[in-house]
Amino acid sequence: MSAAPRRLDASMTLLREVMERPLDPGYAAAAADPRPRTRRRTALTLALSVLAGVGFTVAVSSIRVPQRESQAVSRELREEIERRTEAVQAQEQSNAALAAANSRAQQDLLGTRGAALSRQVRELGALAGEVAVTGKGLTVTLDDAQGRDEVGGDPRADTGYDEGVVLDADLQVVVNGLWSAGAEAISINGERLTALSAIRSAGEAILVDFRPLVPPYVVSVIGDPAGLQTGFADGDAGPYVQSLRDNNGIRVDIAESGSLTLPGAGQFVLRQAEPVEESPGTQESTDSGGHT
């Protein structure tokens, strides 16, 4: 007598069970003989549902609330920034006092013969931006837009930044336009600009010489007020600022000032650039060339 043939899917018992009886026998038995609903069972179900909801709410709330450790770290960082800012300001005041004392000592040592030299040093310091200067000029104030609904086309659309916000590129255009218009000295929110100054951004903050500034940005300029306004309007910066005002909602105000005082940037050192020493032969050649 031969044995019964083996099923082709004999090796796939689990898969066959799933395909033939997808519902567990226990569920089928419970569905066939449902237990009657009692008040006790219903009350227990409601209590468990409420307990699960409360637990879910507490878990979500604990996740959304900032952690105390992160708040403490943030507070410590703010305090550290404030302490270092105060230290830098104190050092700047000390440096300014020492510079003034050195200037007085130089004048005393040089006497009358050194008056011309001292005056030349002060003039060079004003040109370089090391010492404070005063005079008439302009103030150009740029501030972020009040609302974003009324803004239109953005001339800086390719930058990817939000509209209505003053960018470091805007300040660079304004400052370059003022230099081209004949500015003799410029500061932004009290930060004097020199040949080594940089205007850049770090995140959403604008840095001038690595010092963060907040709007409104007040650009103080010393120079001939009428000439500055005319030159600024005729250059590339004038139409650019007008476009920011009209299309981007940025608030711009330009006003004349009869007296401005710009602080000095302090003494800085050139590490690579050195003055060229002219040889006597070069001087004679230059002089002879000028007569021809």
Automatic annotation (TrEMBL):
Question: Which positions, given as ranges, span the membrane?
Answer: 43-63
Say yes or no: keyword Lipoprotein present: no
- Quote the biased-composition stretches of kind Polar residues, using this chain's numbering: 280-292
Residue ranges for the region (Disordered) are: 271-292
Q: Which UniProt keywords apply?
A: Membrane, Transmembrane, Transmembrane helix
Please tell me whether the keyword Transmembrane helix is annotated for this protein: yes
Family matches, as Pfam families: DUF881
Family the UniProt entry places it in:
Belongs to the UPF0749 family.
Q: Could you identify this protein by its name?
A: DUF881 domain-containing protein
Source organism (scientific name)? Kineosporia corallincola
